[in-house]
Design brief:
The complex is a heterodimer of chains A (311) and B (299). Chain A contains 15 helices and no strands. Chain B has 299 residues and is an all-alpha fold. Chains A and B meet through helix 1, helix 6, helix 7, helix 8 and helix 12 of A and helix 5, helix 6, helix 9, helix 10 and helix 11 of B.
């Protein structure tokens, strides 16, 4: 188990290294950051001072290693757009807001997606199952940004029940979190439905029924537990996506989180902020995947012994 | 994972007699028709079936409502935007963009992914590790951010958006093909081909690839909808197709300013995306059940 965890940690670090290369060189496609940082026609002495300060000396490769060294310590340099602040502190202001919205989204996803999927499997072929399938299909196919705009149109403009944008009271979080949850609900519903159908057909579930246990207890306890491990990977993906800021949703609802910041920073060519955001988000994804891998290994010995498992 | 594929299973469900009809693998006609009439035919025939210019409007005919509302005319069945451009014409040309971008991105993504997947699965070892590392990397990149940066750096264009989307989907194909190749590699006919002296490229192309073709076709079909959504989202936030091209995502974005007075501007392009992607998903599901039921668990 220790060896398995270690190997996966190394794999995660290698992945982050590759991402840091991509992130660094992509931002440099636009040219030398010194042109954005300093005033025009800077004296060579001032330019040298700035270069020394932000590690912009030497070849690109040397600069990359300077970037990497600072990044490991959480230092991505000053924001170009807000020169008095570091990129990291600009982001730190926004992350709690994305987390707030993301948590609401994750909560809705889990509370709606899982029960719908389980019930659809338990009542396979019924009208309920067909409605659930319809919901899953819709959630997978509807463009998020369009759904957001239409919900604003109906609920905020036509009916006037909720606020349209910004963060003002509890009602402003309702629509964005619903929009964020729709795709995840569809995905979890499908995944849980199919993995529940598998376990419901298995021998030990039949045995539990034969023993005389009530059907609801068999479905929600005996069958759900083993069925939940399959969709776990996907849930991790959804959770990271929601928690690290959904750019599209935050743009439509003018929600000042990390997703909206990414959009603003990219348009303002505020590359330290973009680089920092990219590294933080990827780190979150890699860590989440690592945790899922470890959890799998813990739950299923075949995984940690390196055998192939149909997932 | 019991899908009613083989005959005995269908019989076992015989209690539900009336549903036997659609349980048999009949073609999904309605979704296919929607894909044909909303996506493919408009895309191919755009200049022939439209009378207005998709890019330049008639300024005197700005913000006209659809024909069934007061002030609407048959000249512009779905109304006009604030530059006096016909919404229906732009939708038709938008289909062209969706089809072009999704086809190109999937061809590139599938080619790259399949090649790397075949190589990784067949040779294993160090090559497999390196390719696995690339797959991990691209699947851990925050894609919207990635797209925003690329577009900020080199500017929006068709090539840029196709490159961005291919970069986001090749890993899916690589994973799929690698897995299938691993299982085919151990089969008797591959071993015999090797004994007969076939070269690695020949074995991969003649013996392994045909066996993963079904899964590939299913995956590619399922990805079309994903890619159309991705293109529309990126175009919506300005990191996709450049204006004034009538991408469906751009049309929704532009209509947002006039949402209160002119709802049709954002509404119709969104409906177009929804019905097309929905139909593509239905056809993809059908194809998967038909060609490759074991893929069900992986997607």
């Amino acid at each position: 188990m220790g060896r398995y965890v270690l190997l996966n940690v190394i794999r995660g670090i290698l992945t982050l290294l590759a991402i840091s290369v991509i992130v660094f060189f992509l931002a440099r496609l636009t040219g030398d950051p010194i042109d954005v940082l300093g005033p025009e026609n800077m004296a060579p002495i001032d330019e040298q001072a700035l270069r020394d300060k932000w590690g912009l000396n030497g070849s690109l490769v040397e600069q990359y290693f300077a970037f990497l060294g600072n990044a490991v310590r959480g230092d991505f340099g000053p924001s170009f757009k807000y020169p008095d602040e570091s990129a990291t502190s600009v982001i730190a202001d926004r992350i709690p807001r994305s987390l707030q919205l993301g948590l609401a989204g994750v909560l809705l996803t889990v509370l709606i997606g899982i029960p719908l999927g389980v019930l659809a499997a338990a009542r396979r072929g019924s009208w309920y199952d067909r409605v659930a399938k319809g919901i899953a299909l819709f959630g997978q196919s509807v463009p998020e940004f369009w759904l957001a705009i239409m919900l604003v149109w109906v609920f905020a403009v036509q009916l006037g029940v909720v606020r349209t944008s910004g963060r003002a009271g509890w009602s402003s979080i309702v629509l964005p979190s619903i929009v964020m949850a729709v795709f995840g609900i569809a995905a979890l519903l499908r995944l849980f439905r199919s993995s529940m159908l598998d376990t419901l057909g298995s021998e030990y579930v039949k045995l539990a029924r034969l023993k005389g246990l009530p059907r609801s207890r068999v479905v929600w306890k005996h069958a759900l537990k083993p069925a939940a491990s399959g969709p776990l990977t996907f849930f991790a993906t959804i959770a990271v996506r929601l928690l690290t800021g959904a750019t599209v949703v935050e743009i439509v609802f003018a929600w000042p989180g990390a997703g909206l910041l990414a959009y603003e920073a990219a348009n303002a060519r505020d590359f330290p902020v973009v680089q920092a955001l990219a590294m933080i988000t990827s780190t979150a994804i890699v860590v989440m995947n690592l945790l899922v891998d470890i959890l799998y290994a813990y739950l299923d010995p075949r995984v940690r012994l390196g055998q192939k498992v149909m997932a | 994972m019991t899908t009613a594929l083989s005959l005995p299973q269908v019989r076992r469900g015989g209690r539900r007699g009336p549903r036997m009809l659609w349980q048999r693998r009949r073609l999904p006609w309605l979704p296919l028709a929607i894909i044909a009439f909303v996506l493919v035919l408009p895309a191919l025939l755009a200049p022939l079936i439209t009378v207005h210019d998709p890019l330049r409007g008639v300024l005197g005919d700005r913000l006209l409502p659809p024909v069934w509302q007061d002030g609407g005319t048959w000249t512009y069945p779905l109304g006009t935007d604030k530059q006096g451009r016909d919404v229906l014409t732009r939708l038709v040309y938008g289909a062209r963009i969706s089809l072009l971008v999704s086809t190109a991105a999937i061809v590139v993504g599938a080619l790259v992914g399949t090649t790397l997947g075949l190589v990784a699965g067949y040779f294993g070892g160090f090559v497999d590790k390196v390719i696995g590392w690339l797959v991990d990397t691209f699947q851990s990149l925050p894609m919207v951010l990635f797209a925003l940066v690329v577009v900020a750096a080199i500017g929006p264009s068709f090539v840029t958006i196709i490159a961005i989307i291919s970069a986001t989907i090749w890993a899916v194909f690589a994973r799929l093909v690698r897995g299938e190749t691993l299982s085919v590699r151990e089969s008797a006919y591959v071993a015999r081909a090797r004994v007969a002296g076939a070269s690695a490229p020949r074995i991969l192309l003649r013996h392994v690839l045909p066996n993963v073709a079904n899964s590939l076709v299913v995956m590619a079909t399922l990805q079309v909808g994903v890619v159309i959504l991705e293109e529309a989202s990126l175009s919506f936030i300005g990191a996709g197709i450049p204006r004034p091209q009538p991408s469906w995502g751009i049309m929704v974005a532009d209509g947002r300013e006039q949402l209160l007075s002119s709802w049709w501007l954002s509404f119709f392009p969104g409906v177009a995306i929804l019905v097309v992607v929905l139909s593509l998903n239905l056809v993809g599901d059908w194809l998967r059940d038909y060609l490759d039921p074991k893929l069900r668990q992986q997607v």
